[in-house]
Every structure is written in C-alpha cells, then in structure tokens.
Design a protein that fits this description.
Layout lengths: L1 H25 L8 E3 L5 E3 L7 E7 L4 H17 L4 E7 L5 H10 L6 E3 L4 H5 L8 E5 L5 E6 L4 H11 L3
Parallel strand pairs: 3-4, 4-5
Antiparallel strand pairs: 1-2, 3-6, 6-7
C-alpha cells in the first residue's frame, strides 16, 4: 500500500514543482507604484511610463561611483531617449537638496531628478541604502535588472538595443 501511494504521488509532485517553476519564471517583479516628484515640481508616476524602458537610478552627490558614472548615464539617455528610454535619477534622502540642485544644474542633467527627502521612494524599491543602485524595467513594467554599484554601460547598451527594437 505504501509503495502504491508513493508511486501515485510522485507524478503529482513533479507536475506541481514544474507548475511552480513556470509561474516563477513568468512572474517577474514589477515596478512599485510610485510617483516621483522632481526637483522642479513635476510629478511622474511609474504607471505613466509603461511603454518605455525605465532606468531608476539611486545616487548621491557625495558618492564617487555615482559621480563617475553620471557623464555616461547622460550620454546613454541622450542616445536612447528618443527610442523609448526614460531615466529617473533619485537623490538619496541624506543628500542635501541644495547640493542636488547645484549638481543637477551644473551638470545640465537632461533627465528628471528627484530628491527622496522622506526615503519613501527608496523604501518602495526595497530599502535602497547603497549608491549607485539602478533598476531597469521593460516596457511592461517588469524588472529586467537590478545593479548595485556602477553600471556596465556596454551591457546596458546591449540590453537597451534588444528592448527598444520595434
């Protein structure tokens, strides 16, 4: 009797595990439902960005890696924005707003910049503490990549070329 029970349960367990695996592969994490308020007072919701590839970059003016990658991020934005890329730069809550404003102006940042003064946005993205941290979402709002540390721009451009082809 025990042998028969094991024999009949095995296919059920295998099917259940395969179903769970398929579900996990098809349900990528989605972008949190947040609205960014930029330093110039504009509001941009993640849901309004569906149809675009979105890179949310958490950074700080006192972060050497952030400052080092910013010129390349600007170039990437200028190269891919018309093809459907949106970049949102989220300055960390501990950064002084005056420094964020001065840096954004002096570097002529071409993409929306927000100061996450209450840490609400960084919390909704999973308690972001380290900078730089970038999240890249596809046109449907599913997470493609999360990078802690400086971005690999060659790999990013390959990803964007793939995601932004019609």
């Amino acid at each position: 009797m025990n042998h028969l029970l094991k024999k009949s349960l095995l296919p059920i367990i295998v099917v259940a595990l395969l179903g769970l695996l398929a579900w996990q592969l098809s349900h990528k994490p989605v972008a949190p439902d947040v609205t960014f308020t930029t330093i110039d007072g504009k509001q941009i919701s993640m849901s309004a960005l569906k149809g675009k590839v979105v890179l949310v970059n958490f950074w700080a003016t006192d972060c050497p890696g952030c400052i080092k990658e910013m010129p390349e991020l600007i170039k990437t934005y200028k190269q891919y924005h018309t093809k459907g890329l949106e970049v949102i730069a989220v300055a960390m809550h501990y950064d002084q707003i005056t420094q964020v404003l001065n840096y954004s102006k002096s570097q002529s940042l071409p993409f929306p910049v927000m100061h996450d003064s209450s840490a609400e946005v960084s919390n909704k993205f999973g308690q972001v503490n380290l900078t730089p941290t970038a999240f890249i979402y596809n046109k449907q709002g599913h997470l493609l990549q999360r990078t802690i540390g400086e971005l690999d721009f060659n790999a990013l451009h390959q990803l964007l070329n793939k995601e932004l082809t019609p």
